[in-house]
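Journal club prep, notes for RB
We'll compare a predicted complex against what the paper describes. Inputs for the flavin-adenine dinucleotide case:
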Amino acid sequence: MATTILGGGIAGTALAGALARTGDKVTLYEQQHTGSAGGAFLFMDDRGHDALTGLGVNADALNAASRSTLGMDYTNSAGVNSSRPNSGHRVWLRANLIAVLREFLAESGVDARHGARIAGLEVESGVATLHVDDHPVVAVVDELIIAADGIDSVVRAHLEPGRVPVYSGDVVVYGMTTVPVELHSPSEVLHFYDEITSRGKGSTFGHIWSGDSAALWFLRLPRDPLPSDDLGVRPVGEWAGEIQAATPSNTSLLETLLARTDSVHVSNARSLPLDNATPPNPSILLIGDADHAITPAAGVGARDALEDAHAVYQAITRGESPAEAMIHRRARLRADRERAQRLIRQSTGRPAST
Ligand SMILES: Cc1cc2nc3c(=O)[nH]c(=O)nc-3n(C[C@H](O)[C@H](O)[C@H](O)COP(=O)(O)OP(=O)(O)OC[C@H]3O[C@@H](n4cnc5c(N)ncnc54)[C@H](O)[C@@H]3O)c2cc1C
């Protein structure tokens, strides 16, 4: 079967590489020449890694390019403390994950067109026409189109114009120190700290470090969303004051981290609700963030996108319906998200952000 994949981020690249390895003709369009943006690092559990190896990505390459964690530790300023052992969580610099996937892609025979942006999509009498920047218009007949073009999907805007991302209530700031740091908290543990204020939900500060590599940290700030000009990579000085003001319980730890960080990655946390989603389209399928992005606070978006890729891959290679596979995926996602909300309510006594 011939497949066109739109968007070569995490899910699109992994799926394209896997399908092409079965001998299928696969064309991939990705607007960026190099790796995708959206946060300098991410955490992924065993399910995300199982999906990657299920797609054929080499486990040794995955382990060599990421770091394992020892567990998670949660504390809040009201005195609640809980911890969880590691459930296969690994820490990834996003660039390293994309590099492993690009290598997987390079060896697969995919017709990969990096630097090609999909400007629009039209469907008439069963023929889909893609508009690709700086390229002639491409007509795709009798092919499966898989849109993995992220939260602001051009394809979803065509198929489901009413389904748009919503702001989750937090600005997220990600930082990485330029040198290793020695901190008092246990290393290789992902630490979360919630400030509980008289008005309810305050900031969440997270960090992980080890003696021999950079410390990674992030802050979620409940506040109005930022205009697009203020997003992306920013000098740390622009944010140091607001970060310190939002984390009064961790002033000295933040001082240490801020003094060793040059720039931060800033984004508005957004989710894409599934509530009003139309059933998966059998010939133009949305996967990953294009179909069901979840706030970075949940820490599962990449895993969910890779599980979609794996489910769709299995359906195609078994001669089953990929749209049916996405119906099952959405049911699983809804169940996972309800369960996660319950667990967060139990451990913190407050609802999770959406
Ligand atoms: C700050 C931040 C922190 C996060 N932390 C975590 C975490 O710790 N754990 C976790 O599991 N998830 C995390 N996520 C979520 C995770 O990054 C996403 O869920 C994941 O990247 C989704 O993968 P995807 O392949 O669906 O989309 P993406 O990775 O976004 O890929 C979409 C691709 O499509 C391309 N594209 C878009 N439009 C077009 C177009 N018109 N034409 C051509 N190409 C196009 C983009 O350039 C991009 O490469 C985080 C997200 C953010 C923003």
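Talking point for the session: The longest strand covers residues 166-180.
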